[in-house]
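Query form — protein SMP-30/Gluconolactonase/LRE-like region domain-containing protein

QUESTION: What is the three-dimensional structure of this chain?
INPUT:
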Amino acid sequence: MRQVLPVSKVYQFPDNGSWIENIVTRRNGQLLITRLDVPELWSINPKQGTASLLYSFPDVTSLAGIAEVREDVFAIVGMKLDLRTSKTYPGSGFVFTADLSKHTPVFKTIENIPQSAILNGVATFDSDQGVVLIAESLYGLIYKFSIDTGAYAIVGNDTVLKATPGASIGVNGVKVHRNYVYFTSSTLEKFGRIPLTKDASPAGPVEIIANTGGFLDDFVLARGGVAYLATDPNNTIISITPEGKISTVTGLLTSLEVAGDTSLAWGFEDGERVLYVATNGAQSAPVNGTIFEPGKVVKLVLDE
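ANSWER: The structure tokens for SMP-30/Gluconolactonase/LRE-like region domain-containing protein are given below.
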């Protein structure tokens, strides 16, 4: 995969410790980002390179996944988490919504999920029914969750979704495409998918698309079934074809270019399709053991 334009910075927070965990593009071209170091939802104007705080959510210390469920209505997950010690707090996972479709935004707490400690990736399964799928990383589960009723159920509980012994991150990113839920299993270093029935139950066994040999974070799907994945401590973006061929798109272990990349989102600028990349600034694994920076959003254009 050939990079046709260099990575360029969209916005960077001013302070070290700023950890961007997830990113999504609104239909108006603005970006929404969640932060793991604080329970805050931010809006970024990519053309102006400016950012503003939209809301700080209660009952949690960290935000993670975000997905648009209906037009300008987003599901967001959060939990209590100590980034300094990696301590988790079982039972602390919450699901929120941010309704930005009105003149005055409305933010709601929908439900606590008691059997959760690290709620992570979120993907829309059924917009009409308001149903999303949520990855629970510590216990290695995928939940089906209704933002309208708060009802939830476990629909994924396979061994490939679990973390390696002693680790805390199993299933991480999730995306729904053509009756499959695609997922990354971070510490097992696997990218795969599970076929789903109409009620989001597994319709068959897990299919492993690639064993990557490195940590995997969130990802996006592209035309032709190619996936682009963030690798967080490995400081690269990789691509995986439907056949499992792996290529490095950009970044380097010893570079800050996309250091600590956590998530990606597609967007358009001036009629051109761009890939936005969110980072934590290499906080989880400083470059060369000592170098890190504030979280940022960068963009690049790919020759697909």
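ADDITIONAL NOTE: The radius of gyration is 17 Å.
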